[in-house]
Structure formats: C-alpha cells, structure tokens
Amino acid sequence: MDIKKIKSDSSVIARNIIYFENIDSTNSVAKTKPYENGTLIIADTQSNGKGRMGREWISEKNSGIYMTYVLIPEIPAERINILTLVAGLSVCEALNKMYPVSFKIKWPNDIVAEGKKVCGILTEGVISQTESKAIVGIGINVNNRCFPDDLKQKATSLYLLTEQISEREKIIHKISDIFEKNYLDFLSGKPFMEKYEKLCVNINQEIAAIKDNTEIRATAIGLTDAGELIIKKEDGTTLNINSGEVSVRGIYGYY
Ligand code: BTN
Question: Is the minimum distance from the CB of 50 to ligand 1 under 6 angstroms?
C-alpha cells in the first residue's frame, strides 16, 4: 500500500496515518497504544483480525482494506456506539459513489451487495474517567478473488462485484472524506437516521434476532435515535434491540 496516495483531505478523522505491513489487529493496536484523536491505522494484512461477536476476520494480504480510526469525541460514553452506524453509512455512501453497484447496510453496519457481505465494522469503546475513545475498525473485501468454502455463500468482494481490480488507497481516501463530513454532522447533532434507514436492508423485513442462543422472529420497523433496531414481534409488541448483544439475520437468505 502506498500511504502517500491516500493523502486524505480530512483534517479531523485521518490527519495522522500509521501504516503496518503486518499487525495482529489494527483494532488491538489502536486500543493499546496512546494514539492521538484523528489517527488512522492501516495494515496490509492482520494475523489476528477480529470480527463482531468474537469471530475472526480473515485478512488476506494486500487484497483487502484493514483499517481503524481512533476518534476521541467529546460526547457521552453511551453515544460512542452510534458512531458505528455513522461509519457504516459513510462506507456505504462512498462505495455507492465509486461503483455502479447498489450497496446497502445490514444493521448495524455490514455493507452488503447482491445478497452478500463486502464489508464489516467492529467499533470498540475505550472509556476512561477523562475521555471516551472510539476504535472504529473497518474491513473491506476489495480484490479478493475467492473465499473459503464456509464463507462463499455469504461473502463477496469489490472485485467479484465489478470484475475490476481496485486501488485500495482511492477507496480509503473516499471513505475518509465522507466519514469526516458525516462525523462532524453527527457531532453537531444533525440527524442522520433517515439517510441510514433509506440504505438499511432490514427495515420492513422479517428478521430473526438471536440473543443468548434464543431466536426471536419479528419485523424490523425502524431505528431509535440511539441506533437500536426497533422490532415488532409476532404478538404485536415492539422491542428495541442493541447491536452489542444481538445478532440479526434475514428469514430469507443472509439479509
Ligand atoms: C464484522 O463484520 O464482524 C466486523 C469486522 C471488522 C474487521 C476489521 S478489519 C480492521 C479492524 N481490525 C480488526 O481486527 N477488525 C477490524
């Protein structure tokens, strides 16, 4: 990766870029080192890439984007989680601008196209008495030509969607520009849920929410201001579900 090519115009969220050829996980290093607000950590591969719910994130060398934004916003700790939706929205908008493919968001923040996942985001909060740090880790399948058998049905890459090799630096640049704008809007209190809901594949769809191995069948009907998914159960009652504790999948196929 040629970091000079990224040259983001962003002066807030990626004003300091740190590159590793190989690291265990860009999220782990972001959590353990005292990087300043607005640092973007990028790696060409990860030996221990982490996904949500304790899963592994396969990080094929030079094929994907593995990056983590370190953000220290002055917001209450409980709002840190919402940043994960802002990041998902930003990646989705960036990819829609760059490619003739329809990218959508699977709540809370998977980016999907043609029924498969192309990007995952893992946001972790490091909350201390003095500050709330958001570690926003983004993994994008870019030039991957194939996936292991167990992922083939669920995962895709920009290469498989477009039949084109992409320059990862250009994508990072675009995401940083859009994320910066959305992040500043979010900090100034501008609502973004409407934009998010328009791109979210789950709204008005039947879903299965899985919590502690128990499945709840329901219809997703919207989002709260805190980014929770509002679901309507078969008995007509509604429930707000939090992305940290529940995984959601479609009844029909992966969505
Ligand atoms: C998921 O969909 O489960 C989230 C995947 C997040 C993967 C990215 S890759 C860069 C950053 N470092 C990690 O270890 N994980 C995130």
Answer: yes
As averages over each run of 10 residues, the pLDDT of the chain (255 residues) reads 79 92 98 95 97 91 97 90 94 98 94 95 89 94 94 94 97 96 95 92 88 84 91 92 72 58
pTM confidence score: 0.93
Atom 2, ligand 1: residue with shortest CA distance: 120
- From the alpha carbon of 138, which atom of ligand 1 is closest? 8
3-class secondary structure per residue, the chain: CCHHHCCCCCCCCCCEEEEEEEECCHHHHHHHCCCCCCEEEEEEEECCCECHHHCECCCCCCCEEEEEEEECCCCCHHHHHHHHHHHHHHHHHHHHHHCCCCCEEECCCEEEECCEEEEEEEEEEEECCCCEEEEEEEEEECCCCCCCCCCCCCECCHHHHHCCCCCHHHHHHHHHHHHHHHHHHHHCCCCCHHHHHHHECCCCCEEEEEECCEEEEEEEEEECCCCCEEEEECCCCEEEECCCCCEEEECCCCC
Quote the pLDDT of residue 4: 84
> What per-residue confidence (pLDDT) applies to 213?
77
User: Given the CA of residue 119, which atom of ligand 1 is nearest to it?
Assistant: 2
Q: Is 55 in the pocket of ligand 1 (CB under 6 A)?
A: yes
Q: Is the CB of 26 under 6 A from ligand 1?
A: yes
Ligand 1 atom having least distance to the Cα of 24: 14
Task: Please indicate whether residue 172, judged by its CB atom, sits closer than 6 Å to ligand 1.
Answer: no
